[in-house]
Every structure is written in structure tokens, then in C-alpha cells.
């Protein structure tokens, strides 16, 4: 879950040397199914020859979810060195074997929690190691509504109310809901969110970092509204235009609520 | 083909069992062969509400496990012709319910000529409630005009449209709302959510509004479903609800503050 930065607090210390902010960055996953030094190096070399642009210090997350063999016997540092020689920069290890995690810590690899994989059409690799797939680092889990289409289209349209406890995510585009979003429900999109009804739950637009994303609703009664990680909660939202038709947008780092004419 | 109706709510104590008893009695009294099943394994109440707790020999779980057949477990109601009750087990727990077992029994009941199968769901959203709603064609969502009850009902509606057998087949479960323990005076004062408030939040067709009534407690204790009490406003409201369920158009009653005439004010009867 990315860090949400409250849009209402300001950094009063002008001389602060740094700031911790939430950021969302898609990372490539290197899914390793088995490891033999010569074979791995050869296949990596071949892939690099096919797509040289991709293999230029590209950060990758190592995953052994589909590994066939003994993880404890895996020479992790050797694998990492080979990757680096061929233009892949392993930055983290996806949560697996405890022994492997120890090795990872020794060579300064971060440990990432297990997330949900969304395989894309760009899966040119064969079934042998290594296979390269795209993964969004903030894919939400939980109960999905039947309408969710794994082959994401530009806009996702939902016509039934989003009930408490449900979560809808529109990857790669806008989300349009032709009903209300109940309290306790969550709607997310990489793009904009349009609600032709009341927003009583949570709406998070631009979840992959698109600061130009907006949220539109016919009645603002939300628990939380967020654009690219900058959010406002119920308490702040009640001050202006509560229960009116509004749209939310990001101005610099501040979330603005403007009435829809 | 039997119509399977689940009476569910999410929140506990809102009137599911009272409603199951009243509505199944009402439907049976209109001439339809009806069975009401208690899905609250371990915390059974339906048998008490319907005054057959002394006649329970075999129960739902016995039939699922093949320890008894349906004929042995079904209890014939003494008041309503055409009504049968399938009680829950008190000694087992909800894990005894399986999808295959429940499906088999529902099919057997349909084959036996039952037109309506009412499933009295337990509270919550766990296994017991899930089993009760899984095969439903229609759901009566019971809610009190109170915020937590409405929120829980919203949750249940979401689960119904995503986890039921019908949802898996791309169909919808017919959903309707029954608002219970309604007190128009308190609504007028602004102390209680009104029908319109609840309808707006839940966006579901209203089956009926059952007014708060002391006769409901009396009915439970006596083991006579409140619909048999024809003087009771709650009983009458349930009767209206049954009519609507069976396709009739009936005006909603008991939703506004009763303008009591002088006589009624002088001789106030507690309803």
C-alpha cells in the first residue's frame, strides 16, 4: 500500500533536508523458475540481444514463486551478479523462503510483500527461466465484482451500486460508476473516477501517480478522497460543498474540491 | 420449480426469524406448499418461534449427513396448512453445512412439490449466512431503520450479488428490503432513519415496512408467528408484505404518524 500524504499538513520546517513521500513505481518482475548458471547466463544474454534497450540498468524485483528446486541451495549473489553484468539491476526480492531472505539482506536487496500479479499481453518469454512480466506494485486485493475485466480496457463502466465492503479497480484508465458508492466501499482508478450518484465511500484516483487525475461525483459524502496519494478525509471534506455535485483535482500538492456547475 | 427465498440481514437481532416465520406462514395460508429452513446451526430459534421445539426429532444436519431422510425431519405446522419446518441442529456447528448437501436437500424439496422454500439465515457474513443465501432466487434483506443495520444490509447485498450461485452464472438475485421496527413518531422527530433515507442508501425495492409493536415479543413467547395476530399492526404489515411478494400491489401502511381521534386518545390501547 503506498504511503498516503495528507494534503492538509504543510512542512513548516523550511530547512528540512528531506521529505518522505509516497510514490508508486511500476517495476518489472524477474520470475525465476529454475537456475543453472550457464543456462541462465546464456538465456539472459540472448534476451538482452533481442531487446537491448530494456537491459540498460533496469531495476527488477526477483521472484521465486514458481521456482522448481531447493531455494536454500540457490546461489543468490551469483544470480544477482549475472543479472548486473547483463543490464538488470535486482533491487528487491519478493517474499519467499526465509533462508533466501537472509541471503537477500546480506547483499542489500529489499524484501517486498507478495502482491497480485496481473499478466500482460507482453509475455514473449517461454516457460523456462527467466521470464519477464510487468507488475503494478500497488495492485489491490479483496473481493472483486463480477464485472472486472482482466484485459483492462481504457474505461471501466459499472452500472450497479458499489456496496459496502466491495472494491473496484480500473487499471490503466477511467472508472465510471452509474450508481452510488456506499459507505465502506472503495473505488480506485489509474485515471479519473466519475460517479453518477453519491460518493459515500472512498475514491482514489491516479493510483499509479497520475496527478492530473480527477474525481467527479453528484453528491460528496465521502469517507476519503485521494488523487495520486494526496488525500482528504470526511472531516476536511465536510467544510465545503458537502453533499453537492463536485469534482476533486490536485493543485500542486493540495486536493481542491470545486463545485460542478 | 420451487422459488428459494433467503431472509438475511447481516446485522443480528433485526427480525430475520420473526420475518421468516411470519412470511412463510402467510404464503402457506394463501395455498402454496411452503417449507421454512433454519440455517442457524447451533443457535436455532425458528423452532421456538413456531412452537415446534418439542417435536424436533431429526434436523437439517441429520438429513445432510444421511442420518435421516427429509420426511422424518420435516415438521408439519399446526396452524398453517401447507407449511413445513426444517429445524436446525443445536448440537452441531455451521461446518456441517456443505454446498453439495444443501443443494441436494433443496432439490429434494423442490421434487417433493414445495413451491416456496424460505431460508432463515443466521446473522453475519460467514459460512452459515453464505450457505443460506447461496442458492437463493430471491433475497429479503431485513433492516432496522438504524445506521449500523443499514450498513450491514448494504454489505450483505454486495455479497449476494457477487457470491451467490446466480451471481456465478451471471444472473442477479432478486433483492428487496423489509424495514422492521419502524416507529413513525421517532422518524418525525428526526431520531430515526425514515423509509426514504434507507431506500436512498440501499437503492433496493421496498417489500414492506413493519412497525414496532409489542405484539411481536408476545408472538415469539407464545410461539405463534405474529401474522396470525390479525389485530396487530405488525401482523397486518406482514400480511401486506406477503401480498406484495405474491405479486399484488398493496399500499404501504404504518409509515406515518397516526392521527389519533379523541376517543382513541382517551382509551389508549397499547398496540
UniProtKB/TrEMBL annotation, chain B:
Q: Membrane-spanning regions, if any?
A: none
* InterPro entries in UniProt: AAA_dom, MinD, MinD_FleN, P-loop_NTPase, ParA/MinD_ATPase
Recorded hits in SUPFAM superfamilies, A to Z, give: P-loop containing nucleoside triphosphate hydrolases
UniProt entry tagged with the keyword Cell division = yes
User: Which keywords appear in this protein's UniProt record, sorted alphabetically?
Assistant: ATP-binding, Cell cycle, Cell division, Nucleotide-binding, Septation
Q: Where is the AAA domain?
A: 2-156
Q: Name one Pfam family in it.
A: AAA_31
* Protein's UniProt keywords contain Amino-acid biosynthesis: no
- Source organism's superkingdom? Bacteria
Q: What does this protein do?
A: ATPase required for the correct placement of the division site. Cell division inhibitors MinC and MinD act in concert to form an inhibitor capable of blocking formation of the polar Z ring septums. Rapidly oscillates between the poles of the cell to destabilize FtsZ filaments that have formed before they mature into polar Z rings.
Similarity annotation: Belongs to the ParA family. MinD subfamily.
Quaternary structure, from the entry = Interacts with MinC and FtsZ.
Q: What is this protein called?
A: Septum site-determining protein MinD
**Name of the gene encoding the protein in the UniProt record:** minD
Amino acid at each position: 500500500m503506498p504511503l498516503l500524504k495528507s494534503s492538509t499538513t504543510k512542512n513548516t520546517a523550511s530547512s528540512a533536508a528531506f521529505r518522505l513521500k509516497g510514490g508508486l513505481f511500476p517495476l518489472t518482475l524477474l520470475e525465476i523458475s529454475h537456475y543453472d548458471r550457464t543456462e541462465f547466463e546464456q538465456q539472459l544474454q540472448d534476451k538482452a540481444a533481442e531487446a537491448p534497450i530494456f537491459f540498460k540498468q533496469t531495476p527488477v524485483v526477483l521472484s521465486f514463486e514458481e521456482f522448481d528446486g531447493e531455494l536454500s541451495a540457490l546461489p543468490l549473489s551469483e544470480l544477482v551478479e549475472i543479472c548486473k553484468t547483463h543490464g538488470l539491476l535486482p533491487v528487491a526480492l519478493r517474499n519467499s523462503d526465509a533462508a533466501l531472505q537472509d541471503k537477500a539482506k546480506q547483499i542489500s536487496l529489499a524484501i517486498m510483500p507478495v502482491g497480485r500479479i496481473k499478466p500482460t499481453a507482453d509475455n514473449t518469454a517461454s516457460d523456462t527461466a527467466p521470464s519477464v512480466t510487468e507488475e503494478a506494485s500497488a495492485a489491490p486485493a479483496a473481493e472483486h465484482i463480477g464485472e472486472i475485466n482482466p484485459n483492462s480496457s481504457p474505461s471501466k463502466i459499472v452500472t450497479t451500486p458499489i456496496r459496502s465492503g466491495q472494491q473496484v479497480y480500473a487499471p490503466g484508465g477511467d472508472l465510471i460508476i452509474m450508481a452510488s458508492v456506499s459507505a465502506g466501499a472503495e473505488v480506485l482508478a489509474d485515471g479519473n473516477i466519475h460517479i453518477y450518484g453519491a460518493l459515500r465511500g472512498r475514491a482514489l484516483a491516479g493510483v499509479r501517480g497520475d496527478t492530473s487525475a480527477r474525481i467527479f461525483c453528484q453528491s460528496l459524502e465521502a469517507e476519503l478522497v485521494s488523487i495520486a496519494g494526496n488525500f482528504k478525509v470526511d472531516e476536511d471534506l465536510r467544510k465545503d460543498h458537502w453533499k453537492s455535485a463536485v469534482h476533486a483535482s490536485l493543485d500542486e500538492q493540495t486536493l481542491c474540491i470545486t463545485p460542478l456547475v | 420449480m420451487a422459488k428459494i427465498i433467503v431472509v438475511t440481514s447481516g446485522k443480528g437481532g433485526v427480525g430475520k426469524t420473526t420475518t421468516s416465520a411470519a412470511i412463510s406462514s402467510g404464503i402457506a395460508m394463501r395455498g402454496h406448499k411452503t417449507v421454512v429452513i433454519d440455517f442457524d446451526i447451533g443457535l436455532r430459534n425458528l423452532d421456538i418461534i413456531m412452537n415446534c421445539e418439542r417435536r424436533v426429532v431429526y434436523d437439517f444436519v441429520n438429513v445432510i449427513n444421511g442420518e435421516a431422510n427429509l420426511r422424518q425431519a420435516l415438521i408439519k405446522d399446526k396452524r398453517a396448512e401447507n407449511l413445513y419446518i426444517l429445524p436446525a441442529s443445536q448440537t452441531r456447528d455451521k461446518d456441517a453445512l456443505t454446498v453439495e448437501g444443501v443443494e441436494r436437500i433443496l432439490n429434494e424439496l423442490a421434487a417433493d412439490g414445495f413451491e416456496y422454500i424460505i431460508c432463515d439465515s443466521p446473522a453475519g457474513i460467514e459460512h452459515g449466512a453464505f450457505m443460506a443465501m447461496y442458492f437463493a432466487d430471491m433475497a429479503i434483506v431485513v433492516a432496522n431503520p438504524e445506521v449500523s443495520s443499514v450498513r450491514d444490509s448494504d454489505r450483505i447485498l454486495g455479497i449476494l450479488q457477487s457470491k451467490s450461485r446466480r451471481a456465478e452464472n451471471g444472473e442477479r438475485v432478486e433483492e428487496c428490503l423489509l424495514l422492521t421496527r419502524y416507529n413513525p413518531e421517532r422518524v418525525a422527530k428526526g431520531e430515526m432513519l425514515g423509509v426514504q433515507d434507507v431506500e436512498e442508501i440501499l437503492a433496493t425495492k421496498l417489500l414492506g415496512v413493519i412497525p414496532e409493536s409489542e405484539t411481536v415479543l408476545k408472538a415469539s413467547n407464545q410461539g405463534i408467528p405474529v401474522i396470525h395476530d390479525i389485530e396487530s399492526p405488525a401482523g397486518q404489515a406482514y400480511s401486506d408484505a406477503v401480498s406484495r411478494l405474491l405479486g399484488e400491489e398493496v399500499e404501504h401502511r404504518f409509515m406515518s404518524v397516526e392521527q389519533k381521534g379523541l376517543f382513541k386518545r382517551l382509551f389508549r390501547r397499547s398496540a
